Amino acid sequence: MDAPPADPFVDLDASALAALVRDGDASPSELVAAAIARIEALNPEINAVITERFDAARAEAAASLPRGPFRGVPILVKDLGAAMAGEPLHLGNALLRRIDHRASEDSYLVKRLRAAGFVILGRTNTPEFGATCTTEPFAYGPTRNPWDTGRSAGGSSGGSAAAVASRMVPVAHASDGGGSIRIPASECGVFGLKPSRGRISRGPQAGEGWAGASTDGVVSLTVRDTAALLDVLCGWEPGDPYTAPPPARPWVRELDTQPDRLRIGVHTEHLFPGLSIDPEVVASVRRTADLLAELGHDVTEAAPPALLEQDFMVHYGTIVSTAMTRQLQEISRLAGREVTADDIEPANWANAENGRSTSGVEYLAALEWMHAHGRRMASWWRGGPGAGQAVAENPDGFDLLLTPTIATLPPPIGHLTRQPGEDPIAAMMRIVEVIPFTAQFNTAGQPAMSLPMGQSADGLPIGSQLAAAYGREDLLLGLAAQVERAHPWSECRPALRA
């Protein structure tokens, strides 16, 4: 029997696929058919895609697509946000799956993806309500890491990151309220940028999430894809309560310019007493620091004092638990009855219980603390809000901060999930051990990214996180492109891939 024909698109990023269509060297239908074949081959083992819309995608690819910059390129969207009118939206929740809940209207993000010419193939797995850092919802089961299927793909955008890492698609929608783009990017060995607060609209379904901590974005194989998607997705939409300052020029143009000499602080110690960073993670981040110094940047041991404030977790927890209480109210409305503990995973039910006991005054006090914490964080950087904006410079400040993205190697499946009857503090401490460095940039509104810079002795991905001042995605993207040229990471492929 003859071997099946090779897939000529499998290792191309979205920008390259779009160029093929523009030049007449491939059709949207060919790109979509190849991506569907990859998903069908890999998804039974990885469980990244939970809702397929293959027939609709084939029909859209064969029709007259918008002539946007990504005409005919296949993409997946996370099943959290990214609402699509008439299509399933389950948020990782078993009750919403049972009642077959469907969105009533498109999100602005989906409208922008479609206007750019993307063809959406389906929705990716997410933990229930995106509330933890591993993608193992009771509703759909765990997404498995394509580098080692016994390990987590991260969360909450684990389905998207696993799909991109395994080459199902070159880019996928993701979102981040406490590290949920960067954590799975690190664990799956792909590139992930969390944009600044207000950069991408959450509408029309919402004005903000988790008091502004949550934002949308993508995970991708290459820096240029993330930059181009940011150009597609960024910008104010009617009704948005706030928006980030517009860039001075398109984000993709930041990739063509050699960055100025940047002052970069590096920190590789755990933020909580008694906990430590895995030595292989520290060594990888140190190699990243050495590379940045070789590229001409000033790399110094330093970190914002506010990053080390342990009270952060208490106040952030108040905001998240109150948001969880409100989330369960909305699930009750959609279900037409009050939800019970049988409808919600144990950790989220306990979190909502905490939220129910929080007064409005306590919530506002936590929010005020977070805003003050953001100002303390901002004082360490040279300034913002972005390229081309008039800002007050801090000559003694830093341009970027380098840390591990997560403190451990990708944990085993089951390690971070709380089981019925388990002590909630013990379960939470396992999560705190893994992710000490990400959520502070959500509440401060600052952009941050995970670069796939290293691997463990057993071949597991290790990410390095870099954060910038509010609005300074230009610095992150410019540096990421410089690093990508010096240390190409797309050649590193997981064992389980198309």
Describe this structure in words.
By secondary structure, the protein is of the alpha+beta class. Helix content is 35%, strand content 13%. The chain has helices spanning 14-22, 28-46, 54-62, 94-98, 108-115, 158-165, 182-188, 223-233, 279-294, 312-335, 346-356, 360-378, 424-434, 439-443, 473-486, and strands at 49-52, 74-78, 119-124, 144-145, 148-152, 171-176, 191-194, 215-220, 263-266, 298-301, 400-404, 448-455, 461-468. Helix 2 packs antiparallel against helix 3 (54-62) and helix 10 (312-335) crosses helix 11. The longest helix has 24 residues, at 312-335. Mean pLDDT is 95; it is low at 387-391.
Structural key phrases:
3-stranded mixed sheet, 8-stranded mixed sheet, 13 strands, 498 residues, alpha+beta
Through-space gap between termini: 21 Å
With strands numbered from the N-terminus, the spatial order across the biggest sheet is 6-8-7-12-13-11-9-10
**CA-based shape:** globular
Query: What is the radius of gyration computed over CA atoms, rounded to a whole number of angstroms?
Result: 21 Å
**Into which percentage range does the β-strand content fall?**
5-15%
Q: Element order, helices and strands?
A: HHEHEHHEEEHEHEEHEHEHHHEHHEEH
* Strand count: 13
What structural category characterises the helix and strand content?
Answer: alpha+beta
Main beta-sheet strand count, sense and barrel state: 8 strands, mixed
Query: What would the average pLDDT be, to the nearest integer?
Result: 95
Q: Low-confidence parts lasting 5 or more residues at pLDDT below 50?
A: 387-391
Percentage of residues assigned to helices: 25-40%
How large is the count of helical segments?
15
